[in-house]
Amino acid sequence: MKKELIKLENLVMEFDGQRVLDNVSLSIENGRFLTLLGPSGCGKTTTLRIIGGFLTPTSGTVLFDGQPINNVPAYKRQINTVFQNYALFPHLDVYDNIAFGLRIAGVKEPEIDRRVSEMLSVVSLNGFENRSVTALSGGQQQRVAIARALINRPKVLLLDEPLGALDLRLRKDMQNELKRIQQEVGITFIYVTHDQEEALSMSDTVVVMDSGRIQQVGTPEDIYNEPANAYVADFIGESNILDGIMKSDFKVNFFGRDFDCLDKGFAPDEPVDVVIRPEDVDIVAPGAGQLTGTVTNVTFKGVHYDTIVNFSGFKWLIQTTDFNAEGSRIGIRLNPDDIHVMHKSEYSGMFGDYSSYSAEYDEIAVAEESEEE
Amino acid sequence: MKRNSGKSWLSVPYIVWMLLFSIIPLCIVIYYAFTDSLTGEFTFSNITGILDYATIFLRSIWLSVAATIICLIIGYPVAYTIARCKPRTQRMLQMLVMLPMCMSFLLRTLAWVALLEDTGIINNIITSLGLQPLPLIRNSGAVILGMVYNYLPYMILPLYTVISKINPRLIEAAEDLGCSKAKTFTKVILPLSVPGIISGITMVFVPAVSTFYISQKLGSTGTVMVGDIIESQFKGAYNPNLGAAMSLILMILIFICIGITNRVAGDEEEVMMP
User: Fold this and answer.
1) What CATH fold (topology level) applies to the domain B51-272?
2) What ipTM score was computed for the predicted complex, to two decimals?
3) pTM of the model
Protein backbone atom coordinates (compact mmCIF):
# COMPACT_ATOMS: atom_id res chain seq x y z
CA MET A 1 0.00 0.00 0.00
CA LYS A 2 2.75 2.43 0.98
CA LYS A 3 4.89 3.26 -2.00
CA GLU A 4 8.26 4.87 -2.29
CA LEU A 5 7.94 8.57 -3.10
CA ILE A 6 11.44 9.94 -2.71
CA LYS A 7 14.70 8.10 -3.06
CA LEU A 8 18.10 9.60 -2.33
CA GLU A 9 20.97 7.73 -3.92
CA ASN A 10 24.54 8.28 -2.70
CA LEU A 11 24.16 12.01 -2.19
CA VAL A 12 27.42 13.83 -1.72
CA MET A 13 27.53 17.56 -1.07
CA GLU A 14 30.69 19.59 -0.84
CA PHE A 15 31.03 23.29 -0.05
CA ASP A 16 34.46 24.74 -0.82
CA GLY A 17 36.01 21.29 -0.70
CA GLN A 18 34.40 20.52 2.64
CA ARG A 19 32.18 17.46 2.59
CA VAL A 20 28.90 18.10 4.39
CA LEU A 21 27.02 15.10 3.01
CA ASP A 22 28.83 11.82 2.65
CA ASN A 23 27.02 9.17 0.64
CA VAL A 24 23.52 9.67 1.95
CA SER A 25 21.02 7.13 0.64
CA LEU A 26 17.47 7.07 1.88
CA SER A 27 14.09 5.83 0.76
CA ILE A 28 11.01 7.78 1.85
CA GLU A 29 7.57 6.22 1.63
CA ASN A 30 4.46 8.14 0.70
CA GLY A 31 2.37 9.48 3.59
CA ARG A 32 5.15 9.18 6.15
CA PHE A 33 6.17 11.61 8.85
CA LEU A 34 9.92 11.33 8.53
CA THR A 35 12.35 13.26 10.70
CA LEU A 36 15.97 14.05 9.95
CA LEU A 37 17.53 14.33 13.40
CA GLY A 38 21.01 15.44 14.33
CA PRO A 39 23.12 18.22 15.81
CA SER A 40 23.82 21.39 13.86
CA GLY A 41 26.25 20.76 11.03
CA CYS A 42 25.25 17.11 10.63
CA GLY A 43 23.88 17.64 7.11
CA LYS A 44 20.17 17.39 7.86
CA THR A 45 19.25 20.83 6.53
CA THR A 46 21.49 20.30 3.49
CA THR A 47 19.60 17.07 2.75
CA LEU A 48 16.29 18.90 3.08
CA ARG A 49 17.43 21.73 0.82
CA ILE A 50 18.53 19.24 -1.82
CA ILE A 51 15.08 17.62 -1.74
CA GLY A 52 13.48 21.09 -1.94
CA GLY A 53 15.58 22.01 -4.96
CA PHE A 54 17.53 24.85 -3.37
CA LEU A 55 20.82 22.99 -3.61
CA THR A 56 22.19 20.70 -6.28
CA PRO A 57 24.18 17.79 -4.88
CA THR A 58 27.83 17.48 -5.87
CA SER A 59 27.04 13.91 -6.86
CA GLY A 60 24.24 11.43 -6.36
CA THR A 61 20.63 11.33 -7.48
CA VAL A 62 17.31 12.49 -6.08
CA LEU A 63 14.39 10.44 -7.39
CA PHE A 64 10.81 11.65 -7.05
CA ASP A 65 8.17 9.10 -7.99
CA GLY A 66 10.94 7.17 -9.72
CA GLN A 67 12.07 10.13 -11.83
CA PRO A 68 15.42 11.84 -11.26
CA ILE A 69 14.78 15.48 -10.30
CA ASN A 70 18.32 16.78 -9.77
CA ASN A 71 17.86 19.34 -12.53
CA VAL A 72 14.23 20.25 -11.81
CA PRO A 73 14.17 23.76 -10.29
CA ALA A 74 12.42 24.31 -6.96
CA TYR A 75 9.42 26.03 -8.50
CA LYS A 76 8.59 23.04 -10.67
CA ARG A 77 8.68 20.47 -7.86
CA GLN A 78 5.52 19.19 -6.17
CA ILE A 79 7.19 19.97 -2.88
CA ASN A 80 6.61 22.90 -0.56
CA THR A 81 8.65 24.11 2.35
CA VAL A 82 8.00 25.61 5.76
CA PHE A 83 11.15 27.62 6.32
CA GLN A 84 13.05 28.18 9.48
CA ASN A 85 11.83 31.57 10.79
CA TYR A 86 8.93 31.13 8.36
CA ALA A 87 10.06 33.52 5.57
CA LEU A 88 6.60 35.07 5.27
CA PHE A 89 6.31 37.91 2.76
CA PRO A 90 6.28 41.10 4.84
CA HIS A 91 4.61 43.12 2.06
CA LEU A 92 1.56 40.85 2.01
CA ASP A 93 -1.12 40.20 4.62
CA VAL A 94 -2.11 36.78 5.94
CA TYR A 95 -4.59 36.12 3.14
CA ASP A 96 -2.21 37.16 0.36
CA ASN A 97 0.64 35.16 1.86
CA ILE A 98 -1.48 32.01 1.89
CA ALA A 99 -2.93 32.72 -1.56
CA PHE A 100 0.53 33.41 -3.03
CA GLY A 101 1.16 29.98 -4.56
CA LEU A 102 -2.33 29.72 -6.06
CA ARG A 103 -2.09 33.20 -7.60
CA ILE A 104 1.22 32.23 -9.22
CA ALA A 105 -0.42 29.07 -10.53
CA GLY A 106 -3.20 31.21 -12.02
CA VAL A 107 -6.06 29.73 -9.98
CA LYS A 108 -9.34 31.70 -10.25
CA GLU A 109 -10.12 34.09 -7.36
CA PRO A 110 -13.33 32.36 -6.12
CA GLU A 111 -11.42 29.07 -5.93
CA ILE A 112 -8.54 30.82 -4.12
CA ASP A 113 -11.03 32.34 -1.69
CA ARG A 114 -12.51 28.94 -0.91
CA ARG A 115 -9.18 27.23 -0.45
CA VAL A 116 -7.67 30.01 1.69
CA SER A 117 -10.56 29.85 4.13
CA GLU A 118 -10.30 26.07 4.13
CA MET A 119 -6.59 26.32 4.95
CA LEU A 120 -7.23 28.97 7.61
CA SER A 121 -9.48 26.55 9.44
CA VAL A 122 -6.96 23.70 9.09
CA VAL A 123 -4.41 25.86 10.92
CA SER A 124 -7.05 27.49 13.20
CA LEU A 125 -6.49 31.04 12.02
CA ASN A 126 -10.01 32.01 10.92
CA GLY A 127 -10.54 35.76 11.09
CA PHE A 128 -6.85 36.59 10.59
CA GLU A 129 -7.18 37.17 6.81
CA ASN A 130 -6.32 40.85 6.76
CA ARG A 131 -3.76 40.96 9.55
CA SER A 132 -0.24 42.02 8.71
CA VAL A 133 2.07 39.03 9.09
CA THR A 134 4.61 41.14 10.96
CA ALA A 135 2.01 41.77 13.68
CA LEU A 136 1.50 38.05 14.38
CA SER A 137 3.05 36.04 17.21
CA GLY A 138 5.62 33.35 16.42
CA GLY A 139 3.06 30.57 16.69
CA GLN A 140 0.64 32.37 14.37
CA GLN A 141 3.36 33.09 11.81
CA GLN A 142 4.18 29.41 11.98
CA ARG A 143 0.60 28.51 11.11
CA VAL A 144 0.55 30.96 8.21
CA ALA A 145 3.74 29.40 6.89
CA ILE A 146 2.19 25.92 7.08
CA ALA A 147 -1.00 27.09 5.39
CA ARG A 148 0.94 28.90 2.67
CA ALA A 149 2.80 25.68 1.86
CA LEU A 150 -0.09 23.21 2.19
CA ILE A 151 -2.57 25.19 0.09
CA ASN A 152 -0.64 24.17 -3.02
CA ARG A 153 -1.48 20.53 -2.24
CA PRO A 154 2.11 19.38 -2.48
CA LYS A 155 3.00 15.70 -2.35
CA VAL A 156 5.67 16.44 0.20
CA LEU A 157 5.96 19.12 2.86
CA LEU A 158 9.46 19.98 4.03
CA LEU A 159 9.78 21.54 7.47
CA ASP A 160 13.11 23.08 8.46
CA GLU A 161 13.26 23.33 12.27
CA PRO A 162 9.87 25.05 12.22
CA LEU A 163 9.43 25.06 15.98
CA GLY A 164 12.93 26.29 16.84
CA ALA A 165 11.88 29.88 17.48
CA LEU A 166 8.92 29.05 19.72
CA ASP A 167 8.90 28.77 23.49
CA LEU A 168 8.63 25.36 25.12
CA ARG A 169 4.91 25.38 25.82
CA LEU A 170 3.97 26.52 22.34
CA ARG A 171 6.38 24.01 20.86
CA LYS A 172 4.56 21.15 22.58
CA ASP A 173 1.20 22.40 21.30
CA MET A 174 2.54 22.80 17.79
CA GLN A 175 4.00 19.28 17.84
CA ASN A 176 0.54 17.85 18.39
CA GLU A 177 -0.88 20.29 15.88
CA LEU A 178 1.63 19.31 13.19
CA LYS A 179 0.98 15.61 13.73
CA ARG A 180 -2.77 16.27 13.47
CA ILE A 181 -2.35 18.31 10.28
CA GLN A 182 -0.16 15.62 8.76
CA GLN A 183 -2.77 12.96 9.46
CA GLU A 184 -5.52 15.25 8.19
CA VAL A 185 -3.90 16.02 4.83
CA GLY A 186 -2.24 12.61 4.57
CA ILE A 187 0.87 13.71 2.69
CA THR A 188 4.54 13.05 3.37
CA PHE A 189 6.19 15.34 5.90
CA ILE A 190 9.97 15.57 6.02
CA TYR A 191 10.92 17.31 9.21
CA VAL A 192 14.33 18.57 10.28
CA THR A 193 15.17 19.04 13.93
CA HIS A 194 17.96 18.75 16.47
CA ASP A 195 15.45 18.07 19.25
CA GLN A 196 15.33 14.31 19.88
CA GLU A 197 12.13 14.50 21.90
CA GLU A 198 10.37 16.32 19.05
CA ALA A 199 11.59 13.64 16.65
CA LEU A 200 10.48 10.75 18.82
CA SER A 201 7.03 12.12 19.59
CA MET A 202 5.98 13.09 16.05
CA SER A 203 7.67 10.79 13.58
CA ASP A 204 6.84 7.51 11.91
CA THR A 205 10.47 7.23 10.87
CA VAL A 206 13.51 8.87 12.41
CA VAL A 207 16.77 9.31 10.50
CA VAL A 208 19.66 10.06 12.85
CA MET A 209 22.49 11.93 11.15
CA ASP A 210 25.98 12.98 12.19
CA SER A 211 29.00 14.30 10.26
CA GLY A 212 27.13 14.15 6.97
CA ARG A 213 26.25 10.48 7.30
CA ILE A 214 23.11 8.62 8.22
CA GLN A 215 23.76 6.78 11.49
CA GLN A 216 20.46 4.97 11.76
CA VAL A 217 17.00 4.83 10.20
CA GLY A 218 14.08 3.39 12.12
CA THR A 219 10.89 3.90 14.05
CA PRO A 220 11.23 6.03 17.20
CA GLU A 221 11.06 2.82 19.28
CA ASP A 222 13.80 1.15 17.22
CA ILE A 223 16.02 4.17 17.49
CA TYR A 224 15.58 4.38 21.22
CA ASN A 225 15.64 0.69 22.10
CA GLU A 226 18.02 -0.62 19.48
CA PRO A 227 20.53 2.20 18.77
CA ALA A 228 22.96 1.24 16.03
CA ASN A 229 26.04 2.76 17.64
CA ALA A 230 27.29 4.76 20.60
CA TYR A 231 26.50 8.03 18.83
CA VAL A 232 22.80 7.23 18.40
CA ALA A 233 22.57 5.78 21.90
CA ASP A 234 23.98 8.97 23.37
CA PHE A 235 22.11 11.43 21.15
CA ILE A 236 18.71 9.84 21.75
CA GLY A 237 18.09 10.02 25.46
CA GLU A 238 20.63 9.21 28.15
CA SER A 239 22.78 6.08 27.97
CA ASN A 240 25.42 4.31 29.97
CA ILE A 241 27.79 2.82 27.40
CA LEU A 242 30.26 0.21 28.59
CA ASP A 243 32.98 -1.83 26.96
CA GLY A 244 32.00 -5.47 26.80
CA ILE A 245 32.87 -8.73 25.10
CA MET A 246 30.29 -10.88 23.35
CA LYS A 247 31.01 -14.36 24.67
CA SER A 248 28.40 -16.07 22.53
CA ASP A 249 24.86 -15.43 21.35
CA PHE A 250 22.75 -14.06 24.21
CA LYS A 251 25.77 -13.80 26.53
CA VAL A 252 27.75 -10.61 27.05
CA ASN A 253 30.55 -9.98 29.50
CA PHE A 254 31.29 -6.65 31.18
CA PHE A 255 32.76 -5.66 34.53
CA GLY A 256 34.14 -9.20 34.53
CA ARG A 257 30.70 -10.80 34.71
CA ASP A 258 28.53 -12.58 32.20
CA PHE A 259 25.08 -11.17 31.61
CA ASP A 260 22.19 -12.65 29.69
CA CYS A 261 21.01 -10.48 26.83
CA LEU A 262 18.79 -10.70 23.75
CA ASP A 263 21.46 -9.91 21.17
CA LYS A 264 23.03 -12.40 18.80
CA GLY A 265 24.94 -12.62 15.56
CA PHE A 266 28.26 -11.30 16.84
CA ALA A 267 31.65 -12.94 16.31
CA PRO A 268 32.83 -15.02 19.28
CA ASP A 269 34.61 -12.80 21.80
CA GLU A 270 33.92 -9.69 19.69
CA PRO A 271 34.56 -6.47 21.64
CA VAL A 272 31.26 -4.57 21.77
CA ASP A 273 29.58 -1.49 23.21
CA VAL A 274 26.92 -2.27 25.79
CA VAL A 275 24.10 0.25 26.27
CA ILE A 276 22.09 0.41 29.45
CA ARG A 277 19.36 3.02 29.64
CA PRO A 278 19.27 4.86 32.99
CA GLU A 279 15.57 4.14 33.50
CA ASP A 280 15.89 0.39 32.86
CA VAL A 281 18.07 -0.33 35.86
CA ASP A 282 16.32 -1.96 38.87
CA ILE A 283 17.74 -0.97 42.23
CA VAL A 284 17.85 -3.74 44.82
CA ALA A 285 19.50 -4.29 48.20
CA PRO A 286 23.33 -4.40 48.08
CA GLY A 287 24.41 -7.95 47.40
CA ALA A 288 21.01 -8.98 46.02
CA GLY A 289 21.81 -7.71 42.53
CA GLN A 290 24.44 -8.47 39.93
CA LEU A 291 26.52 -5.39 40.72
CA THR A 292 27.02 -3.30 43.84
CA GLY A 293 28.00 0.34 43.78
CA THR A 294 28.02 3.55 45.78
CA VAL A 295 25.78 6.52 45.15
CA THR A 296 27.95 9.57 44.50
CA ASN A 297 25.42 12.17 43.44
CA VAL A 298 21.65 12.64 43.52
CA THR A 299 19.74 15.32 41.61
CA PHE A 300 16.00 15.76 41.87
CA LYS A 301 14.45 16.14 38.40
CA GLY A 302 10.77 16.26 39.21
CA VAL A 303 9.59 12.95 37.83
CA HIS A 304 12.66 11.04 39.01
CA TYR A 305 16.05 11.32 40.67
CA ASP A 306 19.20 11.37 38.53
CA THR A 307 21.37 9.08 40.61
CA ILE A 308 25.06 8.67 39.78
CA VAL A 309 26.39 5.32 40.97
CA ASN A 310 30.02 4.30 41.00
CA PHE A 311 30.72 0.73 39.91
CA SER A 312 34.42 -0.05 40.09
CA GLY A 313 35.33 3.47 39.07
CA PHE A 314 32.90 3.66 36.15
CA LYS A 315 29.99 5.91 36.93
CA TRP A 316 26.49 5.17 35.72
CA LEU A 317 23.48 7.37 35.51
CA ILE A 318 20.41 5.69 36.93
CA GLN A 319 17.00 7.29 36.83
CA THR A 320 14.77 6.14 39.64
CA THR A 321 11.76 7.38 41.53
CA ASP A 322 13.28 6.05 44.77
CA PHE A 323 15.59 8.29 46.71
CA ASN A 324 18.98 6.81 47.57
CA ALA A 325 21.16 9.07 49.70
CA GLU A 326 24.66 9.99 48.62
CA GLY A 327 27.18 7.52 49.97
CA SER A 328 24.68 4.67 50.33
CA ARG A 329 25.53 1.33 48.76
CA ILE A 330 23.01 -0.16 46.39
CA GLY A 331 22.74 -3.24 44.24
CA ILE A 332 21.35 -3.32 40.73
CA ARG A 333 19.66 -5.95 38.67
CA LEU A 334 19.70 -6.03 34.88
CA ASN A 335 17.18 -8.08 32.97
CA PRO A 336 18.18 -9.43 29.55
CA ASP A 337 15.99 -6.87 27.78
CA ASP A 338 17.65 -3.99 29.69
CA ILE A 339 20.93 -4.73 27.93
CA HIS A 340 21.52 -3.67 24.34
CA VAL A 341 24.70 -4.76 22.56
CA MET A 342 26.18 -2.82 19.61
CA HIS A 343 29.14 -3.33 17.31
CA LYS A 344 32.12 -1.11 18.00
CA SER A 345 32.12 2.03 15.86
CA GLU A 346 34.16 5.18 15.38
CA TYR A 347 32.09 6.64 18.21
CA SER A 348 33.04 3.94 20.76
CA GLY A 349 34.51 5.37 23.92
CA MET A 350 33.31 8.90 23.17
CA PHE A 351 29.99 8.76 24.93
CA GLY A 352 28.06 7.19 27.77
CA ASP A 353 30.47 7.75 30.67
CA TYR A 354 29.07 9.82 33.53
CA SER A 355 32.38 10.09 35.41
CA SER A 356 32.54 13.79 34.75
CA TYR A 357 28.99 14.27 35.96
CA SER A 358 30.29 15.70 39.22
CA ALA A 359 34.01 16.22 39.50
CA GLU A 360 34.08 16.83 43.25
CA TYR A 361 33.48 13.13 43.99
CA ASP A 362 36.61 12.00 42.17
CA GLU A 363 38.72 11.52 45.32
CA ILE A 364 36.02 9.40 46.94
CA ALA A 365 35.77 7.37 43.73
CA VAL A 366 39.48 6.62 43.85
CA ALA A 367 39.21 5.54 47.49
CA GLU A 368 36.26 3.25 46.77
CA GLU A 369 37.94 1.70 43.79
CA SER A 370 40.69 0.21 45.95
CA GLU A 371 38.11 -0.83 48.49
CA GLU A 372 35.99 -2.76 46.02
CA GLU A 373 38.85 -4.55 44.38
CA MET B 1 9.96 62.10 25.29
CA LYS B 2 10.01 61.65 29.07
CA ARG B 3 12.15 58.52 29.14
CA ASN B 4 14.98 60.31 27.36
CA SER B 5 14.85 63.37 29.59
CA GLY B 6 18.15 62.48 31.29
CA LYS B 7 20.05 62.64 28.02
CA SER B 8 18.01 65.31 26.27
CA TRP B 9 20.77 67.91 26.70
CA LEU B 10 22.77 65.87 24.16
CA SER B 11 20.47 67.15 21.43
CA VAL B 12 21.13 70.80 22.33
CA PRO B 13 24.01 71.27 19.85
CA TYR B 14 21.85 69.90 17.06
CA ILE B 15 18.88 72.08 18.01
CA VAL B 16 21.14 75.16 18.07
CA TRP B 17 22.62 74.14 14.71
CA MET B 18 19.17 73.62 13.19
CA LEU B 19 17.98 76.95 14.57
CA LEU B 20 21.01 78.90 13.33
CA PHE B 21 21.46 77.32 9.95
CA SER B 22 18.07 75.96 8.94
CA ILE B 23 15.15 77.63 10.69
CA ILE B 24 16.47 81.20 10.85
CA PRO B 25 17.74 81.20 7.23
CA LEU B 26 14.40 79.79 6.14
CA CYS B 27 12.64 82.65 7.92
CA ILE B 28 14.99 85.11 6.20
CA VAL B 29 14.19 83.53 2.83
CA ILE B 30 10.47 83.82 3.53
CA TYR B 31 10.94 87.43 4.66
CA TYR B 32 12.83 88.35 1.51
CA ALA B 33 10.36 86.48 -0.70
CA PHE B 34 7.49 88.64 0.52
CA THR B 35 9.18 92.05 0.64
CA ASP B 36 9.97 94.61 -2.04
CA SER B 37 13.63 94.88 -3.00
CA LEU B 38 13.67 98.69 -2.82
CA THR B 39 11.10 99.75 -0.24
CA GLY B 40 11.19 96.69 2.01
CA GLU B 41 7.37 96.64 2.12
CA PHE B 42 5.24 93.52 2.11
CA THR B 43 4.42 92.37 -1.43
CA PHE B 44 3.32 89.40 -3.53
CA SER B 45 5.07 90.79 -6.63
CA ASN B 46 8.10 88.52 -6.17
CA ILE B 47 5.88 85.44 -6.15
CA THR B 48 3.79 86.59 -9.10
CA GLY B 49 7.00 87.62 -10.87
CA ILE B 50 7.99 83.96 -10.96
CA LEU B 51 5.29 83.34 -13.55
CA ASP B 52 7.71 84.85 -16.09
CA TYR B 53 10.00 81.96 -15.35
CA ALA B 54 7.36 79.24 -15.44
CA THR B 55 8.94 77.51 -18.45
CA ILE B 56 12.28 77.36 -16.66
CA PHE B 57 10.61 75.76 -13.64
CA LEU B 58 8.89 73.20 -15.84
CA ARG B 59 12.13 72.53 -17.72
CA SER B 60 14.01 71.99 -14.44
CA ILE B 61 11.42 69.50 -13.30
CA TRP B 62 11.32 67.64 -16.60
CA LEU B 63 15.12 67.43 -16.91
CA SER B 64 15.53 66.21 -13.36
CA VAL B 65 12.62 63.76 -13.64
CA ALA B 66 14.27 62.36 -16.76
CA ALA B 67 17.62 62.13 -14.98
CA THR B 68 15.99 60.44 -11.97
CA ILE B 69 14.23 57.85 -14.12
CA ILE B 70 17.43 57.08 -16.02
CA CYS B 71 19.30 56.78 -12.70
CA LEU B 72 16.67 54.33 -11.48
CA ILE B 73 16.80 52.26 -14.66
CA ILE B 74 20.60 52.11 -14.58
CA GLY B 75 20.94 52.00 -10.81
CA TYR B 76 18.52 49.22 -9.94
CA PRO B 77 20.25 46.43 -11.89
CA VAL B 78 23.62 47.64 -10.60
CA ALA B 79 22.41 47.68 -6.99
CA TYR B 80 20.73 44.29 -7.45
CA THR B 81 23.87 42.76 -8.93
CA ILE B 82 26.07 44.14 -6.16
CA ALA B 83 23.68 42.85 -3.52
CA ARG B 84 23.85 39.32 -4.94
CA CYS B 85 27.67 39.19 -4.94
CA LYS B 86 29.85 37.66 -2.25
CA PRO B 87 30.46 40.00 0.74
CA ARG B 88 34.05 40.79 -0.29
CA THR B 89 33.04 41.65 -3.84
CA GLN B 90 30.11 43.67 -2.47
CA ARG B 91 32.42 45.89 -0.43
CA MET B 92 34.72 46.40 -3.39
CA LEU B 93 31.91 47.28 -5.82
CA GLN B 94 30.37 49.59 -3.24
CA MET B 95 33.70 51.42 -3.05
CA LEU B 96 33.80 51.67 -6.83
CA VAL B 97 30.33 53.21 -6.86
CA MET B 98 31.36 55.77 -4.27
CA LEU B 99 34.75 56.50 -5.80
CA PRO B 100 33.58 59.33 -8.14
CA MET B 101 31.94 60.98 -5.13
CA CYS B 102 35.39 61.45 -3.63
CA MET B 103 36.32 63.62 -6.61
CA SER B 104 35.27 67.26 -6.73
CA PHE B 105 31.84 67.78 -8.23
CA LEU B 106 33.16 70.70 -10.31
CA LEU B 107 36.03 68.64 -11.64
CA ARG B 108 33.74 65.79 -12.67
CA THR B 109 31.51 68.17 -14.59
CA LEU B 110 34.45 69.91 -16.24
CA ALA B 111 35.77 66.50 -17.27
CA TRP B 112 32.54 65.92 -19.17
CA VAL B 113 33.01 69.28 -20.89
CA ALA B 114 36.46 68.15 -22.04
CA LEU B 115 34.95 64.92 -23.31
CA LEU B 116 31.87 66.33 -25.06
CA GLU B 117 33.09 69.63 -26.48
CA ASP B 118 32.91 70.21 -30.22
CA THR B 119 36.69 69.98 -30.22
CA GLY B 120 36.70 67.61 -27.25
CA ILE B 121 38.13 64.15 -26.94
CA ILE B 122 35.16 62.24 -28.34
CA ASN B 123 34.69 64.53 -31.32
CA ASN B 124 38.45 64.50 -31.97
CA ILE B 125 38.27 60.75 -32.33
CA ILE B 126 35.22 61.01 -34.57
CA THR B 127 36.76 63.63 -36.86
CA SER B 128 40.04 61.75 -37.04
CA LEU B 129 38.01 58.91 -38.52
CA GLY B 130 36.87 61.34 -41.20
CA LEU B 131 33.33 61.77 -39.85
CA GLN B 132 31.39 64.93 -39.02
CA PRO B 133 31.63 66.03 -35.37
CA LEU B 134 28.49 65.38 -33.31
CA PRO B 135 26.64 68.05 -31.30
CA LEU B 136 27.35 66.42 -27.95
CA ILE B 137 27.29 69.45 -25.68
CA ARG B 138 25.05 72.45 -24.96
CA ASN B 139 21.79 70.55 -25.20
CA SER B 140 19.40 68.99 -22.71
CA GLY B 141 20.82 65.52 -23.38
CA ALA B 142 24.21 66.65 -22.12
CA VAL B 143 22.62 68.20 -19.02
CA ILE B 144 20.72 64.99 -18.26
CA LEU B 145 23.91 63.00 -18.82
CA GLY B 146 25.77 65.25 -16.38
CA MET B 147 23.06 64.86 -13.77
CA VAL B 148 22.87 61.07 -14.20
CA TYR B 149 26.62 60.79 -13.92
CA ASN B 150 26.83 62.95 -10.82
CA TYR B 151 23.83 61.62 -8.94
CA LEU B 152 23.84 57.91 -9.87
CA PRO B 153 25.65 56.86 -6.66
CA TYR B 154 22.86 58.47 -4.63
CA MET B 155 20.42 56.14 -6.40
CA ILE B 156 22.55 53.00 -6.18
CA LEU B 157 23.51 53.20 -2.51
CA PRO B 158 20.04 53.31 -0.90
CA LEU B 159 18.80 50.68 -3.39
CA TYR B 160 21.76 48.46 -2.59
CA THR B 161 21.18 48.84 1.15
CA VAL B 162 17.54 47.78 0.90
CA ILE B 163 18.04 44.97 -1.63
CA SER B 164 20.95 43.45 0.28
CA LYS B 165 18.76 43.30 3.39
CA ILE B 166 16.06 41.22 1.67
CA ASN B 167 16.08 37.84 3.40
CA PRO B 168 17.30 35.27 0.85
CA ARG B 169 14.82 32.82 2.38
CA LEU B 170 12.01 35.01 0.98
CA ILE B 171 13.39 34.49 -2.50
CA GLU B 172 13.59 30.75 -1.88
CA ALA B 173 10.06 30.83 -0.48
CA ALA B 174 8.84 32.46 -3.70
CA GLU B 175 10.58 29.81 -5.81
CA ASP B 176 9.22 27.13 -3.52
CA LEU B 177 5.70 28.44 -4.13
CA GLY B 178 6.06 28.24 -7.89
CA CYS B 179 7.68 31.51 -8.96
CA SER B 180 10.07 31.47 -11.88
CA LYS B 181 13.02 33.85 -11.64
CA ALA B 182 11.03 36.62 -13.35
CA LYS B 183 7.95 36.14 -11.14
CA THR B 184 10.14 36.07 -8.03
CA PHE B 185 11.46 39.43 -9.06
CA THR B 186 8.13 41.12 -9.78
CA LYS B 187 6.18 39.53 -6.92
CA VAL B 188 8.72 39.65 -4.12
CA ILE B 189 12.02 41.41 -4.78
CA LEU B 190 10.61 44.53 -6.46
CA PRO B 191 7.85 45.17 -3.87
CA LEU B 192 10.38 44.71 -1.10
CA SER B 193 12.78 47.22 -2.70
CA VAL B 194 10.19 50.00 -2.67
CA PRO B 195 11.71 51.83 0.35
CA GLY B 196 15.05 51.92 -1.48
CA ILE B 197 13.42 53.14 -4.67
CA ILE B 198 11.71 55.97 -2.80
CA SER B 199 14.83 57.16 -1.03
CA GLY B 200 16.88 56.77 -4.23
CA ILE B 201 14.41 58.89 -6.17
CA THR B 202 14.40 61.54 -3.44
CA MET B 203 18.19 61.59 -3.15
CA VAL B 204 18.58 62.10 -6.90
CA PHE B 205 15.63 64.32 -7.71
CA VAL B 206 16.16 66.93 -4.99
CA PRO B 207 19.74 67.88 -5.85
CA ALA B 208 19.05 67.48 -9.58
CA VAL B 209 16.11 69.87 -9.70
CA SER B 210 18.04 72.63 -7.94
CA THR B 211 21.36 72.11 -9.71
CA PHE B 212 22.95 75.03 -11.53
CA TYR B 213 26.54 74.20 -12.34
CA ILE B 214 25.83 71.22 -14.59
CA SER B 215 23.39 73.14 -16.76
CA GLN B 216 25.80 76.07 -17.07
CA LYS B 217 28.72 73.93 -18.19
CA LEU B 218 26.99 71.27 -20.26
CA GLY B 219 23.85 73.14 -21.31
CA SER B 220 22.96 76.17 -23.40
CA THR B 221 20.63 79.14 -23.00
CA GLY B 222 17.87 76.70 -23.91
CA THR B 223 18.58 74.53 -20.90
CA VAL B 224 18.79 77.16 -18.18
CA MET B 225 17.44 75.72 -14.92
CA VAL B 226 15.94 77.22 -11.80
CA GLY B 227 19.22 76.92 -9.97
CA ASP B 228 20.91 79.08 -12.60
CA ILE B 229 18.22 81.76 -12.37
CA ILE B 230 18.36 81.81 -8.58
CA GLU B 231 22.14 82.11 -8.71
CA SER B 232 21.92 85.02 -11.15
CA GLN B 233 19.40 86.83 -8.94
CA PHE B 234 21.96 86.91 -6.16
CA LYS B 235 25.11 87.45 -8.23
CA GLY B 236 24.26 89.12 -11.52
CA ALA B 237 20.82 90.73 -11.74
CA TYR B 238 20.87 91.35 -8.02
CA ASN B 239 17.29 90.82 -7.06
CA PRO B 240 17.68 88.68 -3.93
CA ASN B 241 13.97 89.08 -3.17
CA LEU B 242 13.01 87.38 -6.42
CA GLY B 243 15.71 84.76 -5.82
CA ALA B 244 14.30 84.07 -2.36
CA ALA B 245 10.79 83.72 -3.77
CA MET B 246 12.09 81.26 -6.37
CA SER B 247 13.90 79.21 -3.74
CA LEU B 248 10.73 79.08 -1.69
CA ILE B 249 8.58 77.96 -4.60
CA LEU B 250 11.19 75.39 -5.63
CA MET B 251 11.19 74.00 -2.13
CA ILE B 252 7.41 73.68 -2.19
CA LEU B 253 7.57 71.96 -5.59
CA ILE B 254 10.15 69.49 -4.27
CA PHE B 255 7.91 68.69 -1.29
CA ILE B 256 5.00 68.08 -3.65
CA CYS B 257 7.10 65.78 -5.84
CA ILE B 258 8.32 63.78 -2.84
CA GLY B 259 4.74 63.61 -1.59
CA ILE B 260 3.57 62.18 -4.92
CA THR B 261 6.38 59.58 -4.92
CA ASN B 262 5.50 58.47 -1.42
CA ARG B 263 1.81 58.30 -2.24
CA VAL B 264 2.37 56.19 -5.35
CA ALA B 265 4.54 53.67 -3.54
CA GLY B 266 3.21 54.40 -0.08
CA ASP B 267 0.66 51.60 0.30
CA GLU B 268 3.32 48.97 0.08
CA GLU B 269 5.77 50.79 2.26
CA GLU B 270 3.30 51.08 5.11
CA VAL B 271 3.02 47.32 5.40
CA MET B 272 6.72 46.94 5.20
CA MET B 273 7.65 49.24 8.05
CA PRO B 274 5.86 47.79 11.06
Assistant:
1) MetI-like fold (1.10.3720)
2) 0.78
3) 0.80
